[in-house]
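Pipeline run #58 for the internal structure catalog. This entry was flagged by the ingest filter as a single-chain record with no existing model, so it goes straight to prediction. Upstream metadata was stripped on purpose; only the residue string is passed forward. Reviewer on rotation: M.T. Logging verbosity set to normal.
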Amino acid sequence: MKPEIQRELIPRDDTLRLIGALKAMMAKFSDNSEQWKLLDERGHVPDEPSFAELFQHATGAQDLSRDVLRLTAEFAASPHSTNRAGRATLAHLATASTMSAHATSHFADTAETALGLPRSSSPTAQHYPKNRMVIDHATARAYLRRTSEALREAIKELDTHLDFHRFFRAPSHHERPVPPPPKPAGRRR
């Protein structure tokens, strides 16, 4: 295989492992964007929203964000991030990292607002903070969905890269490039 083609290929096993990790993360982000709810069955903010539950959304999002950041950093440090497919994948991972960090902060804002709701005030005084909670929580869930979408785009990029493997045999980690045969010694006279 030509060295320039070899440099462009991410080893198949590495690609498959990364796709598996990304699919698992993508599912977690998507599932949590659906499961973490603020509103009750009637579509209203509960009279006494649970700070603990809402803060759990923030800590869960923080854990997910940390996982995306770690995976992005590991991929960025690998030699695979320098070829065409690697750069495109890294761009999607960077987007996912940013989106997940935004989700965490909006969930934290929601919990903070819930903690500060004036308990003894009139429903009119609670109107603005509750609306802010709804907006922050919905924004956080949207960021989780956008993170999941960015991870899906990274997977698509890697799937396309796997198609490229059909045309060229990818080197494994254990293979070393085969050196060219020695040049024939000159004739002695």
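catalog note: Helices lie at 3-8, 12-35, 51-77, 84-115, 123-165.
catalog note: The chain has a mean pLDDT of 86.
status: ready for reviewer M.T.
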